[in-house]
Amino acid sequence: MTEYPEKSWSFSKDKLLTKCPRAYYYARFLMWGGWDKNAPERVRKAYRLTKLTTIEQFLGSMIHDYIANNITALKTQDIHTALNYIGKEFNKAVKSSYKMKKEWEQNPKNYIMFYSIYYKNRNLFEGNLGKDIKEKTKLLLQNYYNSRTLKDIQSGIRIIEIDRENNFTSFFVNNYKIYSIVDFMYEKNGNTYIVDWKTGKRSKDDEFQLKLYALYAYKNYNIDLNNVYLINEYLYEGDFEERKYTKEELLEVENYIKERIEIMEYYLKDKEKNIPKEEKTFPARPSKYNCKWCNFKEICPEYNENFISQI
C-alpha cells in the first residue's frame, strides 16, 4: 500500500470537493489506510463511513448488476425470479445493518450498512417501505425489459464493454487516472452506443457524465467520436434520451477535467506524491442541505458545532 492515495480524478469526487472540501478530505485522504486494523481509530472510522450506502443507492446497484448479468448471459426476462433475488439481497442488507454492526466495523467492505440505520434517522420497519421498494424494483425491471437498448441487443449487436464486478475503468489526463465507469457500450451498423442506466430521477449531471464516457471510449478504443450516440435509459420513468455531439464538443471535456485538476491541486502540498495540506485547509461548508446526507458528520467538528444542538 502506498502512503498516499493515487493521483486520480472522478466526477463524483469533484462534485464532493465543490460541495464541501472537508468532506472531500475525509473521503479522499483521511480514510486512506483505514482498512488496516492497526490504523488510528479516526482513520478507521473515516474509512468505515465511506462504506455507508443509502437504500436508493443499494437498489440502484442491484438493478445495475442484474442488467449486466442479464445481458451477458443472454437470459430470458423472468421478472419473478429477479424480484425474488433482489428482495432476498435487500433483506440480507437490512439484517446486516441492524444485526451485524460489530462485524461491519471490523470489515466494512464485506458487509452492508445503510446510512439511515447507522445514523438512526429512519425506521425501515415503519410504514410501507418494503412494499414501496418491491413496487419500484418491479417498475425498474419492467422498464428495462421494454427499453430500446434491450430491443437493440435482441436484434443483434457487438458488445464492446459492460460494467460487471466493479471494474474501475479509467483513462489518463495530465498523469492523473480519470475514473469513468461505463454501464454498457456496444456497436451496431458502424455506430457506437454508450448507455447509462438510470434508476433515479433525471439530473443536470446526466449530460456531462455521458460526455465523460465518450471521452473514455475515445481514449481506450480510439472510436470515431462523430459516430457515437449517448443514451440515458431512465428506468424509473420508462423513457430514454439519445444525445449526439460533435467531436470537438466531446473533446472539450478533457479541458474541463484539466481545469478541475488545477483546483484539486490547490489542496495539495506535494502535487507529485499527492500529499494533502492539513485538514483545516479544507474548509467545511455546513448547511442543512450539505450535512443532511453527509457520511462524515460523526467525525466532523463543524457538524457537531453547528447542528448537534438541533438534533
Automatic annotation (TrEMBL):
<dbReference type="InterPro" id="IPR011604">
    <property type="entry name" value="PDDEXK-like_dom_sf"/>
</dbReference>
<dbReference type="InterPro" id="IPR038726">
    <property type="entry name" value="PDDEXK_AddAB-type"/>
</dbReference>
<protein>
    <submittedName>
        <fullName>PD-(D/E)XK nuclease family protein</fullName>
    </submittedName>
</protein>
<feature type="domain" description="PD-(D/E)XK endonuclease-like">
    <location>
        <begin position="8"/>
        <end position="301"/>
    </location>
</feature>
<dbReference type="Pfam" id="PF12705">
    <property type="entry name" value="PDDEXK_1"/>
</dbReference>
